[in-house]
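User: For my dataset I need records formatted as: sequence, then C-alpha cells, nothing else. Please produce one.
Assistant:
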Amino acid sequence: MSEVKSDIEIARAANKINIKEVAAKINVPGENLIQYGHDAAKIDFNFIEKSKSNKNGKLILVTAISPTPAGEGKTTTSVGLTDGLNKIGKKSIVALREPSLGPCFGMKGGAAGGGYAQVVPMEEINLHFTGDFHAITAAHNLLSSLIDNHIYWGNELEIDQRRITWGRVVDLGDRSLRKVNVNLGGISNGFPREDKFDITVASEIMAIFCLATDINDLQKRIGDIIIAYRRDKSPVYARDVKAEGPMTVLLKNALMPNLVQTLENNPAIIHGGPFANIAHGCNTVIATTTALKLADYVVTEAGFGADLGAEKFLDI
C-alpha cells in the first residue's frame, strides 16, 4: 500500500500549465493578463468591462455547519466541485478568498484546499501571492499616518484624540501589538496616545475592497469611512484628511482579480478575504461577478458556518 502524500507534497508535484492556457479556457486573451510569473495573473479592467455584456452563469455557494478551529473543508469542497463540474463538460470557475498570513502561521494553517482538491501555486497563494494584502495594509496605515500628521500640524478638524476610531494593521497575529502607545519620544514625534493594531483581514479597507464594484466606487467608500469624532461628537471622515485619493492609488492594481489554477488545471479566481465574524467573509464582488460572466457555473464559499458567512452572503 502506497504512502498517503501530504497536501504540500501533492501541491509541489502538481503538473501546472502556463496561466495563459488557463485563461484561454475561459476566453481571457493573454494581452488582458498582468502576469506574476508563469502561474498567476491579474485580469485587467479592460477585459472585465468588455465581459459585462456576457450572460451570467449560475452561482453555487458552499457553506458548512459547526466550523472548527482547523476549518471545516469549504475550500476543499469548492475546488473539488469545480473540478468535478469541469470533468463532466460544464465550464466552471471556483472563486475563493485569499489566505491571511495570521491564520496561515497559526493553528488553522493555509487556505488553498487539501488533498487533490487544491489551488496552486499553493505556497505563493498562502504567502505574498500578488501583493493584494500588502497594498491593503499600506492603504490602511497611510490613513493612520495622515490622522496623526493632521493632529501634529495644528488639528484644524478638531479631532478628539480620545475618540480616534481608526487604528493600524499588520497581516500577522502579533498579540503584543493589540494595544500600544504611539507618538512617544518627544515633541517632534507628535502627541502621545493609545492606539491598536488589528490583523489586515479585519480592516475596514478589506471589507470595502471586497464590496466595491469598481475603482470609483472604492474611492467613494473609502472617503465615507469615519476615522474619529470631535469633542461635540460629530464625525470626522477619511475624505476630511484628503485620504481617499492616495489610498485608492495604492489599491489600484490590487483591485484586479487574481487568476490561478486547480490541480486539474481548471481556472480559479482568488481575490480579497475579509473575516466573516467582522465583515461579510466572501471574496470580492468584482471576482464573483467577473467569474459569472466567464463560466456556466461559479463555485464560491462564505466564511465560517451557514449562520454567519452564508447568512451575510445571502443578505448582501
